[in-house]
């Protein structure tokens, strides 16, 4: 699928997210919009093997974008997106493992998914050793996390463990939109220069424009070739990407668009 096609899908997913959040009058916007290009690649770009690879969403509040991607990829009816956060819905405000096909991890506490993904990757490694067969491709875990999660200690403990166990079947993708619920990340936390710190922990680190589909896809493919340690793809993105009045504004982390704002946003996205 071409980058142009993936871009169209990403904007379609953005539109789905905005309509879901508006209908529910609750949910998160900035992160799902910033990561839409990534989810377009993961579910429609041919980089993930859906028969054996796993996609883990650690930042559970991003779940509207994963729900939209799963629905558009045929995991469940698109019409069901309208039930987001409703009583009895299979699409809660934070994902629950098994609620619908494709949700691998229950998420809520930030950073927890990183640890779970690390355990999954270790399990795959151990299974591969037990049933060693050079003709069988080793499955991978793709873990999406947000930069706010880097403030959680268990994330760094998981990185340390994953490096120690040489989990090169584990690919982290950091949606680095630099905003969180109260303000810009830089105004709330100081954890040093991100890339340098990740490298100091022993991860393979790749950095790119996370809203450029061509560049991001190339980096994910490159991550699949790296050995001896897990790889972190630092995807520099813009919170609220695709909607001019939402871009790079912390207020839109979890703000619900009005009817007029929704209509304007959908028009900008051409969906």
Automatic annotation (TrEMBL):
Pfam families: Transketolase_N (PF00456). Keywords: Thiamine pyrophosphate. SUPFAM superfamilies: Thiamin diphosphate-binding fold (THDP-binding). InterPro entries: THDP-binding, Transketolase_N. Its cofactor is thiamine diphosphate. It comes from the Bacteria. Residues 8-265 form the Transketolase N-terminal domain. Belongs to the transketolase family. This is Transketolase.
